[in-house]
Amino acid sequence: MRGSGYRRRVQPQWESPVEKAIREAQERGEFDNLPGAGKPLRGIGTPAGDDPDWWIKGLVQREQLDLTGAMPPAIALRKEKATFPESLADLTSEESVRAVLEDFNRRVKLDRLRPAVGAASPLIAPTVDVDDMVRQWRDLREQRATERAAERRAAEEAAAGAVSPAAGTSRAGRRGRVSWIRRLLGRS
Questions:
Q1: 64 — alpha (psi -120 to 50), left (phi > 0) or beta?
Q2: Is 96 among the domain residues?
Q3: Which residues, other chains included, contact 173 with Cβ-Cβ below 8 Å and sequence gap of 6+?
Q4: Can you give the residue range of the structural domain that contains 76?
Q5: Domains of the chain: total
Q6: Is 95 among the domain residues?
Q7: 90 in a structural domain
Q8: Residue 101 near residue 133 (C-beta atoms within 8 A)
Q9: Is residue 172 part of a domain?
Q10: CA 180 to CA 141: how far, in whole Å?
Q11: Could you give the CA distance from residue 92 to residue 138 in angstroms, rounded to a whole number?
């Protein structure tokens, strides 16, 4: 029989470093007054909340992620085509524009060779008419060059307008001004 002096030893429970950090943060009050505390989760009970991918769509929106790499190739090619000819405006030669467009058409044709998956008809990206796109590229470059020249002229005219009154003042006019200043100061 055990005596009355027996004390039962209580083994301390092991606490993982993560649990310890969370417990200490709770004790410091770092989890108090967080945004959304005590409120229902957004999107639950709404038609958007019934979407099984609601969380990933929210993450993409919140983090402003670019998912172009996750798109099906045909959709990515269609998006790329929609940027023509503006995305080609920085290219300086017709040969480089033609090379980019021919590479695009090559990738579209390769995508069409990919086997279809599922019962739905496959999505196909259209090719571009290289000659028509080169013409649009030329027109865009000419338009931008005209706009830059007009901006340059306006800036030069503004600079000339600011400088011309002082530059156009004659020596006599400057002398007259100086003498007026001297008269004002009493140094005639």
A1: left
A2: yes
A3: none
A4: 62-114+124-161
A5: 1
A6: yes
A7: yes
A8: yes
A9: no
A10: 55
A11: 10
Amino acid at 17: P
Instruction: Say what the pTM is.
Output: 0.52
The alpha-carbon radius of gyration of the chain (Å, integer) is: 37
74 contacts 111 by C-beta, under 8 angstroms: yes
pLDDT in tens, 125-172: 999 999 999 999 999 999 999 999 999 999 888 888 765 554 455 555
Burial class (CB in 10 A: 0-12, 13-18, 19+), 108: buried
Residue 137: how many CB atoms within 10 A of its CB? 22
- Residue 107: exposed, middle, or buried by beta-carbon count in 10 A (0-12, 13-18, 19+)? middle
Other C-beta atoms lying within 10 Å of the C-beta of residue 136: 17
**Under a CB-based contact definition with an 8 Å cutoff, are residues 108 and 77 in contact?**
yes
Nearest to 90 by CA among 81, 80, 82, 100: 100
